[in-house]
């Protein structure tokens, strides 16, 4: 009879020990996830993903049927001014113009190549 009285207690103790082990494993896993998320490359990847999704959400109207015909410049101007102000503050105007010129040359080359092959 004494054995039957102690079995539920021993089972509860074993269950609590297993729950404690599982909790400790979850804590170690959470620490590893936080350490991974705080790495600079992960932070940069998250920031780029966030910026891309924000741009897609804000400028998604351009991709709809009609495109630029019903483009609302007044809605885009606050964003353009913010970006322009940031570039001016960081003195990045010349590098941005250089990148834009290179992009233009690249697009022109691609269009020329497409016309010659098509």
Automatic annotation (TrEMBL):
Keywords associated with the record: Membrane, Transmembrane, Transmembrane helix
Superkingdom, taxonomy of origin: Bacteria
Transmembrane regions: 92-111
Transmembrane recorded as keyword: yes
Record's keyword annotation contains Membrane: yes
Name of the featured protein: DUF3618 domain-containing protein
Organismal lineage: Bacteria, Pseudomonadati, Pseudomonadota, Betaproteobacteria, Burkholderiales
């Amino acid at each position: 009879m004494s054995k039957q009285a102690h079995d539920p207690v021993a089972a509860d103790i074993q269950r609590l020990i297993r729950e404690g082990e599982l909790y400790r494993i979850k804590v170690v896993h959470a620490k590893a996830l936080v350490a991974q998320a705080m790495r600079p490359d992960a932070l940069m990847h998250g920031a780029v993903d966030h910026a891309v999704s924000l741009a897609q959400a804000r400028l998604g109207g351009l991709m709809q049927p009609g495109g630029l015909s019903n483009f609302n410049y007044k809605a885009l101007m606050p964003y353009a001014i913010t970006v322009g102000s940031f570039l001016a503050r960081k003195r990045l105007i010349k590098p941005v113009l250089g990148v834009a010129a290179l992009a233009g040359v690249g697009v022109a080359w691609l269009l020329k190549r497409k016309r010659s092959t098509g």
